[in-house]
Amino acid sequence: MNDAKAKGVNICRNICSLTDELRDLWLRKQSVGDVNSFMNLTVSQHRMLRAVWRLTSSRPEGIMLRDLAEKLGLSSSAVSVMVENMVQRGYLIRTVAQSDRRKVLIRLTDVGISECDGGNNFFGDISREFIDNYDPEKFDVFEEVVSDFIKFLADKNGEKK
Which of the given ranges, 41-45, 59-63, 154-158, has the highest pLDDT on average? Predict the structure, then answer.
């Protein structure tokens, strides 16, 4: 393996390690109840909550099941089962669209919002703390590499970024 490939593999490993360290730090700083809530959700359920959270940031009235399925790269029927489970658990709510009563919209409940906001606030705070103590000239290259990596992975997953 040449030097550039070895560095690339090391970067990928470091990104995975960074993710693990951030998650572990977040878990250590949470209450027992919050940790139990976090641990009682599968990776797919966390992924769905984050997708609903991101998609509803521009559509607070809610999103259609088809849009969520597309974002997750899953069938509508699979997502429908997941949504029903998350509705029963109190993380999501279904409402009828005001403009078209045939449309059902999905959005986060207060519990779902709290789950997403808590992690987002923590990661934002820890990132700002790191950035405040880091050489700003190194960020342009880092941001570019990470953005390119995210686009590469999105393309591999069939998503548009």
Answer: 59-63
Instruction: Let me know: does 128 contact 149? Beta carbons within 8 Å.
Output: no
126-148 burial code (b ≥16 CB/10 A, e <16): eeeeeeeeeeeeeeeeeeeeeee
Detail the DSSP E strand segments found in the chain. 63-64, 92-96, 104-108
pTM, 2 dp: 0.68
CA distance 84 to 80: 6
**Rounded average pLDDT over 9-17:** 84
Q: Are strands 63-64 and 92-96 parallel, antiparallel or unpaired?
A: unpaired
SS3 content of the chain, % helix, strand, coil (to 5): 70, 5, 20
pLDDT at 76 exceeding the cut of 70: yes
Report the alpha-carbon distance of residue 159 to residue 57 in Å, rounded: 19
Residue 139 has pLDDT above 90, yes or no: no
User: Cα(11)–Cα(16) distance, rounded to whole angstroms?
Assistant: 9
Is pLDDT above 80 for 88? yes
Q: Which among 75, 80, 74, 70 is positioned nearest to 160, based on CA atoms?
A: 70
Structure tokens at 2: 């040449």
